[in-house]
C-alpha cells in the first residue's frame, strides 16, 4: 500500500507511541479515535490528525486501522467498528488475530516493548512481530513495520503469546521486584540510587553473556546461611518472604549439581 493512510483506535500508551513514530516516519494519520474525546483530541493535535469519539464515525477509506486498546476492550471495539476495506490489526501480545475475522484483511502488529507516556522509546531498536490472515496482508504489514523499525519478524499467534509471557516475566515481574527492593531500602532510610548501577550491570550482563551465565548470589551458591539471614529480615512480611523463598528455591534447583 503506497498511501499508508492510518486510523489509530485508542489514545493510551501504545496508541500514543505509535502515533508519534508514524508521524515521525511521515505516514498519513487520518484520525485518532477514543471514547474519551479530549484524549483523542490532545493526541490528534500533536500528529496533525482528526479526533473522533464514535467508532461509527471513523474514516472507512484508510489503509490501516491500529486497534491499540486494552486486551479486554478489543472485542468490543471490533463489534462497534464499521466494515472497512483496509487492514485491521491489534497490538496485543496474547489475543489471537481471529477476533478480527469480521474484516477481510486483518492481523497483529505487536511491538515488544514497555510503553509509558512521557517516556520516549527508539522504535528502530524495538522488535515488531507481524501476523496477517493471508500472505498479502502479511507483506503489507511487514512493509509498514519496516518504515519504523529495523527489527521486524513474522510470527504466529501461539509463539506471540509465548513472547508475551516471557516479556511479562522479564519486564513486569522484574520491575515489581525493583519496587520491593526500593521499599526495603527506603524503609531503612537508604536510597534506591545505591542499587541503580547494579540493576544496569545485571541487565547488561544478561544481554551479553545470557542470564544463565550471569546469575550470581546466595541462591546460585546455595548459601543457606545467607538466605536464612535475609529471611529473618523479612519475618514481618510473609508475602515478600514467600516471594524470596520461591525464587531462591527456583534458582537453587536450576544450578543444583
List the helices and strands and how they pair.
Layout: E1 5-9, H1 13-24, E2 28-33, H2 37-46, E3 50-52, E4 64-67, H3 74-80, E5 87-90, E6 106-111, E7 127-132, H4 135-146, E8 151-154, H5 157-187, H6 196-209, H7 211-214, H8 218-221, H9 224-233, H10 238-255
Parallel strand pairs: 1-2, 1-4, 2-3, 4-5, 5-6, 7-8
Antiparallel strand pairs: 6-7
Write a structural description:
- By secondary structure, this protein is an alpha/beta fold.
- The chain folds into 2 domains: 5-155, 3-Layer(aba) Sandwich (Rossmann fold), CATH 3.40.50; 161-255, ProC-like, C-terminal domain (N-(1-d-carboxylethyl)-l-norvaline Dehydrogenase, domain 2).
- Helix content is 47%, strand content 15%.
- The protein has helices at residues 13-24, 37-46, 74-80, 135-146, 157-187, 196-209, 211-214, 218-221, 224-233, 238-255; strands spanning 5-9, 28-33, 50-52, 64-67, 87-90, 106-111, 127-132, 151-154.
- Strands 3-2-1-4-5-6-7-8 form an 8-stranded mixed β-sheet, with helices on one face.
- The longest helix is centred in the last third of the chain and has 31 residues, at 157-187.
- The mean pLDDT is 95.
Amino acid at each position: 500500500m503506497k498511501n499508508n493512510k492510518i486510523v489509530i483506535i485508542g489514545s493510551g500508551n501504545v496508541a500514543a507511541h505509535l502515533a508519534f513514530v508514524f508521524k515521525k516516519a511521515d505516514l498519513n494519520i487520518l484520525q485518532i479515535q477514543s471514547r474519551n474525546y479530549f484524549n483523542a483530541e490532545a493526541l490528534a493535535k500533536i500528529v496533525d490528525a482528526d479526533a473522533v469519539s464514535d467508532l461509527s464515525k471513523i474514516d472507512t477509506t484508510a489503509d490501516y486501522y491500529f486497534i491499540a486498546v486494552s486486551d479486554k476492550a478489543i472485542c468490543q471495539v471490533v463489534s462497534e467498528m464499521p466494515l472497512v476495506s483496509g487492514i485491521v490489526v491489534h497490538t496485543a501480545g496474547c489475543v489471537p488475530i481471529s477476533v478480527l475475522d469480521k474484516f477481510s484483511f486483518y492481523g497483529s502488529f505487536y511491538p515488544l516493548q514497555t510503553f509509558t507516556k512521557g517516556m520516549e522509546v527508539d522504535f528502530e531498536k524495538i522488535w515488531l512481530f507481524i501476523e496477517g490472515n493471508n500472505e498479502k496482508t502479511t507483506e503489507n504489514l511487514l512493509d509498514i513495520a519496516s518504515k519504523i523499525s529495523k527489527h521486524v519478524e513474522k510470527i504466529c499467534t501461539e509463539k506471540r503469546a509465548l513472547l508475551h509471557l516471557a516479556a511479562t516475566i522479564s519486564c513486569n515481574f522484574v520491575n515489581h521486584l525493583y519496587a520491593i527492593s526500593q521499599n526495603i531500602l527506603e524503609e531503612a532510610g537508604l536510597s534506591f540510587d545505591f542499587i541503580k548501577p547494579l540493576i544496569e550491570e545485571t541487565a547488561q550482563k544478561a544481554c551479553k553473556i545470557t542470564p544463565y551465565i550471569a546469575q550470581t548470589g546466595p541462591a546460585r551458591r546455595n548459601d543457606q546461611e545467607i538466605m536464612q539471614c535475609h529471611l529473618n529480615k523479612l519475618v514481618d512480611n510473609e508475602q515478600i518472604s514467600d516471594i524470596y523463598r520461591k525464587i531462591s528455591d527456583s534458582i537453587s534447583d536450576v544450578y543444583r549439581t
